[in-house]
Amino acid sequence: MTEPLARFSEWYEHAVAAGVVEPEAMALATASADGIPSVRFVLLKGIDDRGVEFFTNYESRKARELTENPRAALAILWKPLQRQVRLEGPVELLSGEESDAYFATRSRGSQLGAWASRQSEAIPDREWLETRLREMDTSYPEIVPRPPHWGGFLLRPGTIEFWEGRPNRLHDREAFTRGADGAWHARRLSP
Question: Which residues participate in catalysis according to the annotation?
Fold first, then answer.
């Protein structure tokens, strides 16, 4: 297969069908403008021919770093299947319409949590957060609109690597790099 995003989607669907716990959990690596790296887990929320989608608070550390330095790397591991995928490339904001559409699918509690949380900021204690959640529940008794400080990002990979575990640590590794013409070029890597 020469279309790596389609392969990634197939591998993800296989992990879901196999019952892998939280198959959507991805490690997201970012770096500040001066190159200080950080990594955390986010949830995969979409794969299409453009790239990979995830959502967050735009005031979070990760979002600030993606604004300062709009490049990132993602890694997803399905250990029971002995499969891993790595993606690297530029990151951009999803449209407001795309963010609205995804936000509308979230549970009411998650929607309220997006308003209540000041992600990555220090807070006095857990009770402060619980109080904020109750306040948001009162403020939005019916439909919860998407907060302006919350939405999606799209990583447009320039590189995608697939790894499959094999005996004797002779794992399969295949890397795809997108050329200037937009076509994907594959090469096999030594384990």
Answer: 169
